[in-house]
Amino acid sequence: MATLARGGRLNIFGFVLRLAARLPFLFIAGRVYGASELGRFAYAVLVVEFAAQIAALGLRRGLAQLLANAKKPQACVVADAMLVAAIGSVIGMTILIAFPRAMYPTTRISGMDHLLAITVIAIAWTDIALAALAYNHDVASTVRARSIVEPWTISIVAFIWSYISIDDGLIISYVFSMVAAMIAALIPLFRCYGVPHGWRPDLKTAWSTAARNVPLAAADAVEWASRRIDLAVLGAFMPAAFVGIYYVAQQVATLPAKLKTSFEPVLGPAIVRRLATGDLPGIAKQVRQVTYWIIAAQAGIALALGIPGRAVMALVGSGFTGGTATLGFLLAAEVIAAAAVVSEAALIYVARKRNMLISLIMLAIEAGLAAALILIMKGQGFPQAFQATGPAIALCVALGFASLAKSWLLKRKLREPVSGWRWSIAWAAAAAVVVGAPIRLFLPEMLQLIIGIPMTLGAFGIVLWTKGFGPEDRELFKLRKDEVQELRDAEARDQLEDDIV
Q1: Dihedral of the CA atoms 366, 370, 373, 375 (nearest 10)?
Q2: 170-220 pLDDT, tens per residue?
């Protein structure tokens, strides 16, 4: 439990860094490039990230089990994983370069737009490298790559490139950020595992690894698609400007979602080790604890961002305030999804096929309901801003189904309760609403952000800490002396590297 708390602590710190870095990009993209250009960028990135998910073949989460059962040096196991991802990525990149309309179905293709396809291998290799590092409890590298290098690179390059070309500035900045994140992940990977001496490319092993990981790859792709298919459906029915507005709301709402992935790198290996000893009650306890941590954190952040939602969207530009309702539904969806995501972290090892089936049903519900809601509201003459909320509402419903179904399935497999819900979350939410609502009603937008967000989050946190947190819950916030020393050592190493360079 202390290891889980430590990993989550480091990644929550990474979440704060990522939030600070992602907001400048949204500000630049919205105010400099505009909603239409942002919508075009969002759809292209959607396709590339889907290709990267398929190319990784489930190794982002499956690598922990491969390393735990390794019969050869772990460096060679990682090299095998990289080979599998490279083969899948080359196939994906070839298809996208040959058929760029897959990335830009309704807009022009010009300049350096084709370059976007090269990010497939960068994304896949970064995910696998960070998963390998997390297996050895190196979560700091994930924080560095995902929360510092990637978001700051895309913000800085987007700003600089706006003076060169508005047409492909967002695309180029994304390429730079993904490549930079890959480099930031590969350097510590080689330090941790070393060069795979004696390793030779083994296509037979690569193929067998890919075949074994098909259920994991499908689960990863479906989980990823559940956060993207709403944008894809919206793009099929609505103009690019509404896709851009929805994308901004999605980026703000999915910042709290990083808290779920904060625990994933350490929860997966912990579950694998407990499975090896048959400790099912221990797994259930870990799932309950992490689910509670995530629901509590996401609920607090969702209320802090959702109550002054209009002011949050206005930061990107006045033309984006029409996405306020969408932001509210997307924030709610992330809270609802917590139980499904944490349960899936165990189900991919104990019930892969049934977990995949639930995920596919969830995806079908989301896509069908999103399209139906848009068409119904369009038929009834609702404004387009109302129609654009359809996919977000569908996401809430689909994730609610997935959370209930996956929690029930995991409970049956472990024969132990796995729910992380506690009523202290409801009391903390009520306190946040009491504090935040008057600020939203009576203060100007800028003060809603400066005063409202910290006060709302503070009210939520105080009630939760005093009424809901026990000793194990507070483990998340205990920074030990060895961790302080580790952070100091990491800073010293970074400074030494800078001096050498």
Answers
A1: -140
A2: 999 999 999 999 999 999 999 888 888 888 776 676 667 667 767 666 766
Encode pLDDT of 467-476 as tens digits: 877 766 666 5
300 in Cβ contact with 335 (< 8 Å):
no
**E strand or H helix that includes residue 139:** none
Contact predicate 396/329, CB 8 Å:
yes
* Token pair 């060895």 in the structure block, residue: 482
Amino acid at 134: A
pLDDT digit string (tens) for 291-337? 888 888 889 989 999 999 999 898 888 888 888 999 999 999 988 98
State the burial class of residue 276 (Cβ atoms within 10 Å of its Cβ: 0-12, 13-18, 19+).
exposed
Sign (positive/negative) of CA torsion 350, 126, 152, 35? negative
Instruction: Provide the 3-class DSSP secondary structure of residue 110.
Output: coil
pLDDT at 138 over 70: yes
> Which tokens go with 252?
């703000």
Residue 210, CA distances (Å) to 57, 118, 218, 404, 412 in order: 6, 21, 12, 30, 29
| Three-state DSSP state, 419 | coil
Q: Are residues 7 and 263 in contact, defined by beta-carbon separation less than 8 angstroms?
A: yes
Do the Cβ atoms of 247 and 256 come closer than 8 Å? no
Residue labelled with tokens 């990267």: 52
Q: What is the pLDDT of residue 485?
A: 45
Three-class SS state of 443: coil
Q: How far apart are CA 321 and CA 338, in angstroms?
A: 27
Q: Which residues contact 73 (CB under 8 A, 6 or more apart)?
A: 196, 197, 198, 199
